[in-house]
Write a structure and sequence with these properties.
By secondary structure, the chain is an alpha+beta fold. Helix content is 12%, strand content 26%.
């Protein structure tokens, strides 16, 4: 189940250097998102497919002096079989924001009130 919250925003990170970029900026180890998960795993529980949980982590961004700036939750973008099409009647197509399939696609759940500041920090 999902709900749109006005106080939260989502930032998408994708590309071949996504993990390297984030590894140096946040307080948690994002390299685990680079570990491949077997194709036989699914978060949808069925008798024929073993269940797996969605990989996520909580992290913070600090300034160079180590003071807290922002916090965020990072999630892997859903796989094809985990998405639902707009009608809700079946699986969707492609990963969220997967333009060329190159690299990892991560979604960051952040506080909307600091989104602009956070984006400026990522662009520096």
């Amino acid at each position: 189940m999902a709900s749109h919250l006005k106080t939260r925003s989502v930032v998408r990170f994708s590309g071949p250097d996504t993990l390297k970029f984030l590894q140096g900026l946040i307080t948690n180890d994002v390299r685990r998102f680079g570990d491949s998960v077997g194709d036989e795993k699914s978060s949808l529980v069925t008798p024929n497919v073993p269940a797996s949980s969605v990989r996520s982590l909580y992290a913070a961004m600090l300034n160079p002096q180590g003071r807290f700036l922002y916090d965020l939750f990072l999630y892997e973008a859903p796989r094809v079989e985990e998405r639902i099409d707009p009608s809700g009647s079946g699986p969707g197509s492609g990963r969220v924001g997967d333009d060329d399939g190159d690299g990892v696609v991560l979604l960051a759940d952040v506080d909307s009130s600091v989104l602009d500041e956070l984006m400026d920090t990522f662009k520096k």
